[in-house]
Amino acid sequence: MAALLEAEGLSKAFGGLVAVNGVSLSVSPGEVLGLIGPNGSGKTTLLNLIAGTTRPDAGAIRMDGEDVTRLPNHLRVRRRINRTFQLVRMPANLSAIETVMAGVLYGAGERVPFKEAGYVAAGLLGELNLLLKADRRLDQLTYIEQKRVELARALATRPSVLLLDEWLSGLGASELDGGMSVVWSLAARGIAVVLVEHVMTAVRALCGRVMVMNAGAKIAEGPPEEVLRNAEVIRAYLGDEDA
Amino acid sequence: MVGEDKPFPTRAALAIGSLVTLVVLLAALPWLLSDYGLSFMVSVMSYLVLTVAWALFSGPTRLVSLATSAFFGVGMYTVAMLIKLMPLYATFAVALGVGALLAGVVGVLTLRIAGMFFVIFGFGLSEMIRQLMVWWEINKTHTMGRYVFVPFDATLIYEHLLGLAVIVFFVGWQLRRARLGLALMVIGEDETVARQVGVNVPFAKVAIFVVSAMFMTMTGALMAPRYGFINPNFAFNPLVSFQVVIMAFLGGLQRLWGPALGVIPLIILSELLQTEFPFWFSVLLGIVFMVIVYFLPRGVTGLIEDGWKALGRPLELQRGLTGPLVDAWGWMSRPIILPRGIAGAIEDVWVKIAPQTKGRR
């Protein structure tokens, strides 16, 4: 399968600390790529680089053959790359449906008329079982509902690459099943998903391929069972309680 | 009347009907009021446009602008400078163009500046233009001021301002039902989220800044014939900027009509202060501002809503699009991002020459 998103040799340093060091990554439509590694290994920074939240010091990102390395955040959204945040970010004074509407109105593809955007947003919230919470604001939603609103916000912009930053963490056993089936359905409709995750059950079940990062560098890549047996990976995780 | 079973008038028809009646009544005022009453209403109408236009930008973006007097002054002084060269309406058009251009340039240059620095910049801009114009008039044109004598009396000024007020309210009302309005609200809450839904944040901010500034410029232009003699110190009076902010805070920013509620009380108050305590005017106005911000963070709008609730009829606060735009208090208590200054520059250089100091773990 041809890769939809390709990143090559991405590097980013903050002051003297190299957060991401020459990491390459590719993901194809319908694929779920797992991105694991201990805390502080650069997973979120890598996600930020791909989403355009931060600019890389070196390296290139191609989306569907087009070089998007220099594009600002909002233009990458319109090139169908979107993400969720590790800590949910949702405008506090806007209702769930308004937040999602903003995505519908400014997202990729043909422009949706303002009057129709509400219906589209409602549809997306419905898919994620949030229709009855559409008029709620951030503080009136549970943690899980907030995560789902954020996913709806990302989906509203019609992405074909979706970067999920620990979207499944903090869920209970039954909620995890629901969350995993959501991710599964995203891949099933052809979205390329990059899943940053500490929940290994989910990584094993969902990901066809896993990439392991440590200290800003990629240390392993391959099918989950194989990678998780890899000695270097186990060493990287040693003493890390998240593993 | 329509058929018996149809509910008429509908709510929308009622609302539109009462608004039209209000505008017609306001339009008839010059023939009902004394000269003093009319000049009071001109004052009210001009500040109404300025305040609502100010809230158009500062409400959703939460950037307090003190550039009002800059645009007001540009409008007024452009008319004053050109009035001998072209017809009045042509000077209005030129003023509008100059104001929009200035707002565009200023917007692009400054909207990346955070909180408090933007406030200071707005104030500085107005002062800079004022000094520049004083210098220009003294050294280049050798005029101490300009005369604007045109057959454009208080009644005409008032009617034009009323028209402008109708337009600014209509724009504000439409904005809440439009893509840009929603984007601005997301920007005001969280710029990162705004970018992540695909909003071009700088563009949206500059766009609304220009729209807001055009109303301010037009108000200044319309007010030029009101005063026969205009000099830069008069046109670019910083007090205008401050009063607009106080009016908006007094009225409350949560609703479109909120800022309007602050205009009349403050004009009455400042007339009173100016006549009774001319030397203490600025001090007293400053105290008023502090009292308002401290005790009425939600403005008069908040008072009315609280009173309504107290009557036992809870007013359903529609959140979001039609709901609270800005919690003024929230803005006031937001931490200020301090400039990193020389220490920051030293830090940056240090990091460059000693990249290993923090270690590559």
- The assigned CATH architecture of the largest domain in chain A is 3-Layer(aba) Sandwich
Q: How many domains comprise the coordinates of chain A?
A: 2
Poorly predicted regions of chain A: none
Helix content of chain A: 25-40%
In CATH, the architecture of chain B is: Orthogonal Bundle
Which chain pair has the greatest contact?
A: A-B, 41 and 35 residues
Count all strands of chain A and give the number.
10
User: Taking all residues together, what is the mean pLDDT of chain B?
Assistant: 82
Output the number of helix runs of chain B. 16
Content of β-strand of chain B: under 5%
What is the total domain count of chain B? 1
Major sheet attributes of chain B: 2 strands, antiparallel
Content-based structural category of chain A: alpha/beta
- So what's the overall shape of chain B? globular
Enter the CATH topology name of the largest domain in chain A: Rossmann fold
Approximately what portion of the residues of chain A adopt beta-strand conformation? 15-25%
| Coarse structural class of chain B | mainly alpha
Give a quick precis of the structure.
The complex is a heterodimer of chains A (243) and B (361). Chain A contains nine helices and ten strands. By secondary structure, chain A is of the alpha/beta class.
Verbal overview:
The complex is a heterodimer of chains A (243) and B (361). Chain A has nine helices and ten strands. Chain A is α/β, with parallel strands linked by helices. Chain A folds into two domains: 1-80 and 160-243, Rossmann fold, CATH 3.40.50; 90-158, no CATH class. In chain A, the strands form two sheets. Chain A has a six-stranded mixed beta sheet, with helices on both faces. Chain A has a four-stranded antiparallel beta sheet with strand order 2-1-4-5, with helices on one face. In chain A, α3 (96-106) packs across α4, α3 packs parallel to α5 (143-156) and α4 (114-127) packs across α5 (143-156). Chain A is globular. The mean pLDDT of chain A is 90. Chain B contains 16 helices and two strands. In chain B, α2 (35-61) packs parallel to α6 (154-175), α2 (35-61) packs across α12 (258-276) and α6 (154-175) runs antiparallel to α9 (201-223). Classes of the chains: A alpha/beta (243), B mainly alpha (361).
